[in-house]
Amino acid sequence: MTHSPSLADIAAKLEAYDPQALPVSEVLKFLDLLLEPVQDSESVDIFAALGRVTSQDVISPINVPPHDNSAMDGYAFDGTALNKTQALSLKVVGTALAGKAWQGEVHEGECVKIMTGAIMPQGLNTVVPQELCKMTAEDAIEIPAGLLQVGDNRRLCGEDIMQGKAALSKGGLITPAAAGLLASLGVPTVSVFRRLRVAYFSTGDEILSLGEPPREGAVYDSNRYTVHGMLQSLGCEMVDMGVVKDDPILLEQAFNQAAEKADAIITSGGVSVGEADFTKAMMKKLGDVVFWKIAMRPGRPMAVGRIQKGNRSAILFGLPGNPVAVMVTFLAFVKPALLKMMGTSAGPSPMLRAKTLEVLRKKPGRTEYQRGIVSRNVNGELEVVTTGNQGSGVLSSMVQANALIVLSHQQSTAQVGDWVDVLMF
Ligand code: AMP
Ligand code: MG
Predict the structure, then answer these.
(1) What ligand has the least distance to the C-alpha of 278?
(2) Does any ligand 1 atom lie closer than 6 A to the CB of residue 269?
(3) 77 in any annotated domain
(4) What is the mean pLDDT of each run of 10 residues along the chain (425 residues)?
(5) Where does 262-322 have alpha helices with state H?
(6) Same structural domain for residues 151 and 81?
(7) Count of CB atoms within 10 A of residue 402's CB?
(8) Closest-lying ligand 1 atom to the alpha carbon of residue 268
């Protein structure tokens, strides 16, 4: 972190850098140049690893499955004896159970009754499912012609994971499936990047904490709760610093405390133009910070920077105050930024396309994020309506929505029936 480029260096590298009308794509490029993944890793138990990010490839110590085995309950036999036009008659000489290999020898014209998961007996390579063959005597079956090919219903040793190969790659998120895969290797722990520590607080004299009595002109703090929820779903370690009043001493204390322990600091409020408060001034005083007007709606003003404290530094995301703008800027910028800092190599979630059932008024030259309700129509197509009032303070629009309708920078008004991008929550 010691040789990190200054924000001015980064800005100079961008072609379309205009802090007064910064396109969303430039914000993303800027953040990508600014941010570095955490370095430290730790070994954790698989149960504790859910939602964490692998810090190295996980090389499999074994083959999964460890032996060729049967995918069906049936009879194992040598499939090279199959004939396209003639039924195959076989004598049943034994039984192979899951977890108990059958040791005997199988000769031409013989087969072994086998259960799902049981090891394939020596020399056998094909399984006929029970329901496809005819019992012709107590110890004899007949396989009708033309039903099977060599190798059918046999799972090969290592077909899921090969010994010595990467079962999980570095930078992957440990999902329930990945946790199960690790367990299938017999590996009880996994090396993951350390958790990202994120401190957050709300700013503004008019912001009430829960429990305070209402007063004229004041609103309850909702941003800390939406930010908390979004950070939790990313698996961050959180430092909740409450509401900080518009007072230079309190703000300085809060920023310093946050920078001492966190990798990232998220604030809301106090970054708009003409804001008569100390938040911007304090950000500027304590760190290398840029203030942007982003070409987007909602969420135009935003501050980004690096606050140095001793020999460590924290990335600052100064989000706007309006509750919807906070959520939208978080989803659009902070989430991908934090994912990069967490060490993930996954790209952003793919957007889907839905047919709009409403006219969506839009001017080219900014990206708009409208709150949408996406459903499937009788033809199987996705369609979308807005939640109504799209004001940047109308948090109920985020509650009703199941997606953001993303109208790109260049796009103009979308007519009824036009296909638009939607980002599902
Ligand atoms: P600001 O960006 O500080 O001018 O705030 C814009 C609007 O968002 C104002 O109406 C604020 O009252 C409102 N706001 C700011 N912070 C919060 C918060 N933590 N919770 C709810 N509303 C907020
Ligand atoms: Mg304010």
Answers:
(1) 2
(2) yes
(3) yes
(4) 82 95 97 96 97 97 96 98 96 94 94 97 96 96 97 97 97 97 95 98 96 96 98 97 95 96 96 78 95 95 94 95 97 97 91 98 97 98 96 95 98 98 96
(5) 279-286
(6) yes
(7) 14
(8) 16
